[in-house]
């Protein structure tokens, strides 16, 4: 059976690169869907696909986050993975698109779920901002903060994989942001700011293969702290490279639920691998053979250093239509 993918916002469903890439399911917030309907929807997904991987932003409202955990708890299912990501909104959509591509491959549910954490390290996510005065997700110096009040100021900001910030139109901007060291394509979402730098200057400097435009996600302004922005993400477009990147990482059996996994923690039950014996290779280390030349190098840190899945927190008291309490 295939593994179903789900998101919590339709903005995270970017256009597919081909007609074979499946869509992800949108799990509605509590205000738009009663609990019994959410339970029935999720149960139907599990019956059709076997497992469900849900990717959602770490900034998801607490009430919606509680709904996800409540459904998982009431269904008493370890076949549901809840994966919060710290990426900007457009990058979250690009990550989901990559997972949608990989869901057609022969990866088991545990490997596909863990692949989400691995692939975040190979997304170059940023934005062009008209102001950084309210930006709190990337370190902003006092000078940049003061200059953001000057008319016409623009800043190029990289949030992942490493935070960077340069003011456009200055000597430091000539160096630009750190470019990916592997083949990528660029997705650009214009907002309330001219997108010329992201559509023309950045692709030339980063030598990206193609540039695609996408609608700006509705939560981008909140994430970046301004409505004057253009968001961009450079990512690996080739599903064969993504496949080899994930396949090159060592696999283990989860001690909690028995699923196959990569990294040091299960995406479904949150169980950790026991410590490796002295001298044994790391659970997240790649195999001895080198990855393909077209793929970025895989490091042990990349396989497991992202935030692990979280166990279900204590849920607020919610009446279950079947008379069961969480």
Automatic annotation (TrEMBL):
Residues 296-307, 317-326 have a biased composition (Low complexity). Residues 276-326 are annotated as: Disordered. It comes from the Bacteria. This is Uncharacterized protein. It comes from Streptomyces qinglanensis.
């Amino acid at each position: 059976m295939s593994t179903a993918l789900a998101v919590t916002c339709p903005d995270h469903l970017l256009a597919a690169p081909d007609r074979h890439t499946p869509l992800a399911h949108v799990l509605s917030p509590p205000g738009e869907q009663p609990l019994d309907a959410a339970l029935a929807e999720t149960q139907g997904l599990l019956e059709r696909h076997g497992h469900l991987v849900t990717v959602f932003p770490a900034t998801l409202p607490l009430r919606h986050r509680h709904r996800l955990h409540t459904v998982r708890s009431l269904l008493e299912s370890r076949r549901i993975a809840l994966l919060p990501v710290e990426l900007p909104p457009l990058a979250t959509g690009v990550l989901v698109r990559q997972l949608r591509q990989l869901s057609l491959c022969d990866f088991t549910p545990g490997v596909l779920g863990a692949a989400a954490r691995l692939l975040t390290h190979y997304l170059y996510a940023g934005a062009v901002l008209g102001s950084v005065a309210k930006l709190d997700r990337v370190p902003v110096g006092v000078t940049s903060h003061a200059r953001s009040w000057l008319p016409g100021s623009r800043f190029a900001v990289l949030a992942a994989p490493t935070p960077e910030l340069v003011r456009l139109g200055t000597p430091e901007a000539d160096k630009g942001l750190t470019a990916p060291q592997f083949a990528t394509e660029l997705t650009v979402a214009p907002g309330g700011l001219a997108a010329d730098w992201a559509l023309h200057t950045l692709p030339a400097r980063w030598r990206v293969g193609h540039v695609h435009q996408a609608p700006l996600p509705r939560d981008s302004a909140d994430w970046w702290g301004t409505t004057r922005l253009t968001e961009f993400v450079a990512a690996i477009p080739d599903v064969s490279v993504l496949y080899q990147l994930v396949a090159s990482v060592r696999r283990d059996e989860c001690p909690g639920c028995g699923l196959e996994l990569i990294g040091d923690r299960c995406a479904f039950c949150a169980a950790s691998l026991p410590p490796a014996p002295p001298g044994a290779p790391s659970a997240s280390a790649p195999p001895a053979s080198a990855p393909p030349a077209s793929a970025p190098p895989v490091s042990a840190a990349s396989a497991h250093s992202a935030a692990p899945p979280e166990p279900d927190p204590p849920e607020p008291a919610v009446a279950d239509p079947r008379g069961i309490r969480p």
